[in-house]
Design goal:
Layout (H helix, E strand, L loop, with lengths): L3 E3 L4 E4 L2 H9 L3 E2 L3 H5 L10 H7 L9 H9 L5 H26 L4 E2 H6 L1 H11 L6 H11 L9 H27 L5 H12 L3 H36 L3 H7 L4 H11 L5 E6 L3 E3 L2 E3 L4 E5 H5 L32 H18 L4 E2 L4 E2 L8 E3 L1 E3 L1
Parallel strand pairs: 2-8
Antiparallel strand pairs: 1-2, 3-5, 4-12, 5-8, 6-7, 9-12, 10-11
Keywords: Heme, Iron, Metal-binding, Monooxygenase, Oxidoreductase
InterPro entries: Cyt_P450 (IPR001128), Cyt_P450_B (IPR002397), Cyt_P450_CS (IPR017972), Cyt_P450_sf (IPR036396)
Family: Belongs to the cytochrome P450 family.
């Protein structure tokens, strides 16, 4: 239908790889922030509690506020940080695979609840100093909150998200307060020192700290869990592929990237035209919404030949982590978790197989695998 296609509402779908890349990386495309929302005729759509809360987070901010908060975080997962985190991630993976092995002794096991969802919360939780006994609660409210980030959420979904948003605010506000009272050798303590030096108003600093901590946490969970589940299923679909990768572990990084290309955890991201412009030959008026379609872009045959074939040895490219100033903060961490998990899985479970296709939640934007039964 074209690289830019009119949506049934007042917006456009962007499907071509180059057009999507231009939107993600271009300075003329903005996140749908409060300033834009206030200029819309249908303001009711943006007044939901959860929507308002997410609009305050890093992914919905534009310069200069985005620049200020982004710089305060530094390069979250640079090479040295990933090196320090690697042994911890390896420990988490080993522990979770011990639990998987125990369950598999009795037959089938659900890979999602046992491993995929537990690894991201264990990793980010230990990094931020979140007590392990709170992990299940964080996972539950994250699953519920993400409804507000759908393309066209229903009123019932927004109600569920509103309650989850309240619980997230309560939890992470208290976490910041506790860490302020009892500083530790952790990332959150470092952020507190940074913002205390930058912002003289303690209440303002704590509000920013709450939003940063909450956003980094929830952004690390749903997407990475889906990546891990999709990775296992896709690598087992073709007979012999799992065994081949076990014999050729040098292709593990390429396999992770092919999973990210083939079935990205996020399918849609929205941007706003800062000025009247032309995108792939289509005139776009100022303030118009465009929806970047990650899956479509990654399957553009002009960028990846034979795109609907899953090929570990492809060496292709993808836009799954976005681009420009909003490039995914946790890309390196997600790759570390996926690479570490896949490496240990291939060694410990060479005969692992899926019992049934993965089940997905009914969503347009944030993919979520709800179950994946495996056996040996």
């Amino acid at each position: 239908m074209g690289d830019v296609v009119r949506a049934p509402w007042d917006a456009y779908f962007v499907t071509g790889y180059d057009a999507c890349s231009e939107v993600l990386r271009g300075r003329d495309w903005l996140a749908p922030d409060f300033a834009w929302q206030e200029r819309q005729a249908d303001t009711e759509r943006w007044e939901a509690v959860a929507t308002q809360e997410m609009t305050k987070t890093l992914s919905r901010l534009n310069a200069p506020e985005h620049t200020c908060q982004r710089r305060s975080l530094g390069n979250l997962f640079d090479r040295s940080t990933i090196t320090r985190l690697t042994p911890r991630v390896e420990e988490h993976v080993s522990r979770l695979l011990d639990e998987l092995a125990e369950k598999l002794r009795w037959g089938e096991a659900d890979f999602v609840s046992t491993v995929s969802e537990q690894l991201p919360i264990s990793t980010i939780g230990s990094w931020l100093g979140i007590p392990p006994e709170d992990y299940a609660h964080i996972l539950e409210i994250t699953h519920n909150q993400v409804h507000a980030q759908e393309l066209l959420p229903t009123k019932s979904q927004l109600a569920v998200s509103a309650e989850a948003t309240f619980q997230l605010r309560t939890y992470f506000t208290e976490l910041v307060a506790q860490r302020r009272a009892n500083p530790g050798n952790d990332v959150l303590t470092g952020w507190i020192h940074t913002w205390d030096a930058r912002e003289p108003n303690r209440a303002t600093a704590d509000e920013i700290l709450y939003r940063l901590t909450m956003f980094v946490t929830i952004a690390s969970l749903e997407t990475t869990a889906t990546l891990l589940s999709a990775m296992v299923e896709l690598l087992m679909k073709e007979p012999g592929r799992w065994a081949w990768l076990g014999e050729n572990p040098g292709h593990i990084d390429a396999a992770v990237d092919e999973v990210l290309r083939y079935d990205p955890p996020i399918h849609i991201n929205t941007r706003i035209a800062a000025e009247d412009t032309v995108l792939a030959g289509v005139p776009i008026a100022k303030d118009s919404m465009v929806h970047v379609m990650y899956g479509a872009a990654n399957h553009d045959p002009r960028r990846n030949e034979d795109p609907d074939t899953f090929d570990v040895r492809r060496g292709g490219t993808h836009l799954t982590f976005g681009g420009g100033v909003h490039y995914c903060l946790g890309a390196a961490l997600a790759r570390l978790e996926a690479r570490t998990l896949l490496t240990q899985l291939l060694k410990r479970f060479p005969t692992l197989r899926t019992v049934a296709p993965a089940e997905y939640a009914s969503r347009l934007v944030f993919r979520r695998v709800t179950s994946l039964s495996v056996a040996t």
